[in-house]
Amino acid sequence: MELRHLRYFVAVAEEGAMARAAERLHLTQPSLSRQLRQLERDLGTSLFERTSRGTSLTAAGTALHRHALLLLRLADATRDVVRAGDSVVRDIVSLGIPQGVPAQQLMRALAEVEERLPHIAISITEASSAEQLKLIRDGHLDLGIVREPPSGGLRAALLFEVPMGLAVRPGHALAAKAFCRLSDWDGLRILAHGRQQVPVVHDRLVVVAHDAGVVPLWHFAQFSENALVCAQAAKAEAVLLIEHSARRLLPDWPWLPLAEPDLALTTWLAWPAESRAAVADVAGVVAASLRRGAEAA
């Protein structure tokens, strides 16, 4: 079995069709089919179920897919290591991060990994919680810092909880208050993240407001860096954010904590149940560092 066979296998698994994979690899379809049959003979098992509608993985193919992605990633990283003249081959662990985690805390966590695990290099991917969880399940990401409880057989470590509140448009009557209550939201035009970004907070918001008989004028949207632009477009009087994000994205808008009910944004560290030792080692260092950072904040 050669690395090129694994590259061919991954291409077919991702494309779901032999013809599209052959085009992507610049091979003829018969040539690609021969290579994959050779791989199946080498492994002694069938990797694909071939139908008129396309190609799907067998149970053995699914097991091989995650392993193949890891091997190919390490093989690709080898070129970079040699090119950089590094005398020590470092194990690469990919870490996903969402918007809103303070950069100082992340930098401290990376510094601790560098100090305690010098044989490991970290690769960063910035993505939403939903995107990270999909990447982890698909074998494209080792660890993810996410805003919803991981499920589906993933391991998880609770990192910290941060209270939610409102960044209020300057000049609004609420802006003079030190905090806000749920009753203050009634009839208020509020911009909030859509369910695709923070589903747990989104669902709890809707339920809590409904149960209290409060009817905010919700405007749900997917946004990150352009909160001010989205607020202007929605003519929002307030934006639902954690304090760190509000101070950074809307510095001129007073941020009010929600006094009642308690509504927090929970952050988790997620990784596959079956992982390399390096992934578990990084998870332990990152989780401990981020917890300490949250307690000190």
From TrEMBL:
* Gene3D superfamilies for this protein: Periplasmic binding protein-like II (3.40.190.10), Winged helix-like DNA-binding domain superfamily/Winged helix DNA-binding domain (1.10.10.10)
Question: Which InterPro entries does the entry mention?
Answer: LysR_HTH_N, LysR_subst-bd, WH-like_DNA-bd_sf, WH_DNA-bd_sf
Question: What does the UniProt keyword field contain?
Answer: DNA-binding, Transcription, Transcription regulation
Q: Which SUPFAM superfamilies match?
A: Periplasmic binding protein-like II, Winged helix' DNA-binding domain
Q: Which GO terms describe its molecular function?
A: DNA binding; DNA-binding transcription factor activity
GO cellular component assignments: protein-DNA complex
What Pfam families would the database entry show? HTH_1, LysR_substrate
- List residues of the HTH lysR-type domain: 1-58
PANTHER family xrefs: HTH-TYPE TRANSCRIPTIONAL REGULATOR CYNR, TRANSCRIPTIONAL DUAL REGULATOR HCAR-RELATED
Q: Which family does it belong to?
A: Belongs to the LysR transcriptional regulatory family.
- What name does the UniProt record give this protein? Transcriptional regulator, LysR family
